[in-house]
From TrEMBL:
GO terms for biological process: mRNA catabolic process. One of its GO terms (cellular component) is P-body. This is RNB domain-containing protein. Residues 388-684 form the RNB domain. One of its GO terms (molecular function) is 3'-5'-RNA exonuclease activity. It comes from Salix brachista. SUPFAM superfamilies: Nucleic acid-binding proteins (SSF50249). Pfam families: CSD_RNase_II (PF23163), HTH_RNase_II (PF23161), RNB (PF00773), WHD_RNase_II (PF25255).
């Protein structure tokens, strides 16, 4: 780029590598001599620069001479040097430099503060103001009248510039002076000065820069030059400062190029941010049913990165400071606070998140979809057969919740000729299709368990494999692993066997329908009655072995349309002491005891579960009403469960000599591990996994299972509170007093919804009493529920 600036009979010439454009600038405020300029863009000199011819009037004469590029430069530089020397003394006089009669080159010399001077000072970390000095304030400070009409006391250190050539400035003209200065600021002038000074390796003061680019050191021009230099972050840098005087030096070319690159990148990023903010603003304004789909935000890379930064910010999961910075910039640009809740609300407002998004699922990084390679591998497994014992003649009951997708277990029973009851616990057999260490197995281990949330179910296995191959289905021949047990009259195990089998489930019952059938006592459903009888025998026997009854109430919630702003909520509260639930629970425990015995007899490493006897004196809780209050009180003092991978250990709470969870291999990975081990022994092979291998795998799986359990608990709590939030404010709820936390603040169990909360209760009420409460506040996102007792 070639640039020429004519200033008061003095031209400043700048040159840099040639480009296809040429700029010729004139200061419209100053007089200039007329000149003509010719540029042949296609003619190059031997040095590789374009050939120029300038027709300029001879300074002080009327003649016109033609100059070549080189001669023109030499002529201008000679006159510039001469002119610079002539102006030097004038500059020093104008700014009142006190140098002892000498002019000091390239050294900033501080100017004394006096009344009437026009000064720039730093008001605070962000504001710089212009003011007129009024008078002294003490020994060192000065009172000033600033551009905003305010009078204040400042320290000399606050002064950043003293405008030269001013003795008694009219304070009413400060605003006008600032306005004129702003109109004269042309940052492109700095580029010309930078090239000149860089070539000569010279530094410059604001007044010298004013002489160079404006041809004057008048107050206005000097202040303009100061503003250009002090605000510049590209061409110049401060070399030395003394009081209010600074000396600036030109940056090296390499540094300027790098700063320019950064500046352009910053400008591009700011433009990109503004475009993104416009997208967000537009999406926020759209009605709920017309907002952009979530997929539209992740198509373009630059938009996807910003959305992902907001998402990470919303769940406190930013992976880098850059991600946090981007999210903060977006929120600030949107006029929102830089908080996780702000990011969450923004993502909800644009339709990226549903109103009731499950944040815990995002925070815990729960996998909801199976990779394509796992799905493909699962489909390949569906064709593998195995020889099995035919039990299709048995009447088979599968009892589960009504919305169960994966059916792991079913039951059969008969009475033998000697009067004893024989039961069959049929368990789904996923190990027919999945082998230890396979792709599908590794993915199942990574997940650890299926995830059952009010809004959705995320299976441990790919859905097609779980539903079409593994799950039990009514009226169809299904593969199973069957544990058959003959009970003594007191409920203990007399005989047992474990076999690969095929069954044909007769009924798929919900707990409600199974309880209804039991209550009806139909003769044609004698097998169901036998199962109930067997369950009663087992419960009695376990209690004799020291088992502690911890049956309480359990809440289930299903939200069929969670993406809707106001989805429907189906809430069920189930009593674990219900006959059908007791029946299923006892049969599962019976199966677990039989497998533990089988493992012990065959020396099989298995995840044997136990719980040391807590020495719970049940009689100490006899004063509490039977049911949730007593059960929850005993659970609070129980010790944690343990796992032994080599031999059975007593489970004191269940009253069993040994126990292995075995009945949910489609849903729980540790159950699947037990199936691998047992199935190998049934084939006559050694168990595929040693106790050491099981220990490492169990540790990882239990860690993931705890994460999922926490997620399920928080999700259930969220939807119970949301359910309560929607109820009429005047609605009353029954609440059982579980215990007193402090003074009259009690832990309560809301019977109708199965939620534990706290509230102040009246004098005279005791643990186990029932009170009535009303919901004062309910905020599911903040996990807040406030209750108030209703005193009758």
């Amino acid at each position: 780029m070639i640039s020429v600036r004519a200033v008061n009979t003095c031209s400043i010439f700048r040159s840099s590598p040639p480009v296809s454009s040429f700029r010729f600038r004139f200061n419209k405020h100053l007089r200039t001599n007329t000149s003509s300029f010719h540029y042949d863009r296609y003619s190059k000199s031997g040095s590789g620069f374009p050939t120029f011819r300038f027709d300029l009037p001879i300074l002080g004469h009327g003649d016109v001479r033609s100059y070549s590029l080189q001669s023109f430069v030499d002529t201008v530089f000679e006159e510039l040097t001469s002119n610079h020397k002539r102006k030097r003394q004038g500059i020093c006089s104008a700014i009142k430099l006190k140098t002892g009669g000498e002019v000091l080159d390239d050294k900033p010399v501080n100017q004394a503060v006096e009344k009437g001077l026009l000064v720039e000072f730093k008001k605070d970390s962000e504001r710089v103001l212009l003011a007129v000095v009024q008078r002294r304030d003490g020994k060192k400070n000065w009172m000033v009248y600033d551009q905003n009409g305010a009078t204040s006391s400042i320290k000399p250190q606050q002064i950043t510039y003293i405008v030269p050539g001013v003795d008694n400035f009219d304070q009413t003209q400060i605003s006008s002076f600032i306005q004129k200065a702003q109109q004269n600021l042309d940052t492109s002038l700095l580029e010309f000065a930078w090239i000149e000074l860089l070539e000569k390796n010279k530094s410059v003061t604001p007044e010298e820069l004013a002489e160079m680019i404006f041809g004057s050191v008048e107050p206005l021009e000097s202040y303009c030059a100061h503003l250009l230099l002090s605000k510049d972050d590209l061409y110049f840098t401060v070399q030395e400062t003394k009081g209010s005087r600074s000396l600036y030096g030109p940056r090296p070319t390499v540094q300027v190029e790098e700063l320019m690159r950064r500046k352009l990148a910053k400008e591009a990023a700011e433009k990109e941010l503004q475009e993104f903010v416009q997208l967000l603003t537009s999406a926020k304004a759209m009605p709920s049913n017309a907002k952009p789909p979530k997929t539209s935000w992740v198509v373009e890379e630059k938009i996807r990165c910003k959305i992902e930064s907001l998402e990470a910010y919303a769940i406190d999961a930013c992976k880098s400071n850059d991600e946090k910075r981007i999210a903060g910039m977006i929120l600030t640009a949107m006029g929102m606070g830089k908080t996780a809740s702000s990011a969450l609300n923004l993502l909800i407002d644009i339709g990226y998140f549903p109103v009731h998004v499950n944040l815990d699922m995002l925070k815990l990084n729960i996998h909801t979809d199976h990779p394509d390679e796992i799905i493909s591998a699962a489909e390949d497994l569906l064709s593998e057969p195995i020889n099995r014992k035919d039990l299709t003649h048995l009447k088979v009951y599968a009892i589960d919740v009504d919305e169960a997708d994966e059916l792991d277990d079913a039951l059969s029973a008969t009475r033998l000729q000697d009067g004893r009851i024989k039961v069959w616990i049929h368990v789904a057999d996923p190990t027919q299709y999945v082998q230890p260490g396979s792709k599908v197995d590794r993915e199942a281990m990574r997940r650890g368990t299926s995830v059952f949330l009010p809004t959705a179910t995320y299976p441990m296995f790919p859905e097609k494999l779980a539903m079409e191959g593994m799950s039990l289905k009514q009226g169809e021949v299904c593969n199973a692993l069957t544990v058959s047990v003959i009970l003594h009259s007191d409920g203990c195990i007399a005989e047992y066997s474990v076999n690969n089998s095929i069954i044909k489930p007769t009924y798929m019952l919900t707990y409600e329908s199974a309880s209804e059938l039991l209550h009806m006592n139909l003769e044609e459903e004698a097998e169901l009655k036998l199962l109930s009888e067997a369950a009663s025998l087992r419960l009695q026997w376990r209690r004799e072995q020291g088992a502690v009854d911890t049956a309480t109430i359990e809440t289930r919630i299903k939200v069929p349309n969670p993406e809707d702003p106001e989805p429907s909520i189906n809430l069920y509260v189930e009593n674990q002491a219900d006959p059908a639930m007791r029946l299923v629970s006892e049969m599962m425990l019976l199966c677990g005891e039989a497998i533990a015995t089988f493992g012990s007899c065959n020396n099989i490493p298995l995840p044997y579960r136990g719980q040391p006897q807590s020495n719970i004196d049940v009689s100490a809780f006899a004063h509490l009403p039977e049911g949730p209050v007593r059960s929850l009180a005993m659970v609070r003092i129980m010790r944690g469960a343990e796992i032994d991978l080599r031999k059975p250990i007593r489970h004191g709470i269940l009253g069993l000599p040994g126990y292995v969870q075995f009945t949910s291999p489609i849903r729980r990975y540790l159950d699947l591990l037990a199936h691998y081990q047992v199935k190998a022994v049934l084939r006559g092979d050694s168990p595929p996994l040693s106790a050491g291998q099981l220990e490492g795998m169990a540790s990882l799986v239990n860690m993931q299972t705890r994460v999922v359990r926490r997620l399920c608990s928080s999700s259930l709590q969220y939807w119970i509170i949301e359910f309560l939030r929607r109820q009429p404010k005047e609605k009353k709820y029954r609440a059982l007093i579980l215990r007193f936390i402090k003074d009259r603040v009690a832990a309560l169990l809301l019977v109708e919804v199965g939620l534990q909360a706290s509230a102040w209760v009246s004098l005279g009420t005791q643990i186990g009493d029932e009170v009535q409460v009303r919901v004062e506040e309910a905020h599911p996102r903040d996990d807040i529920i406030s209750l108030k007792e209703v005193v009758v």
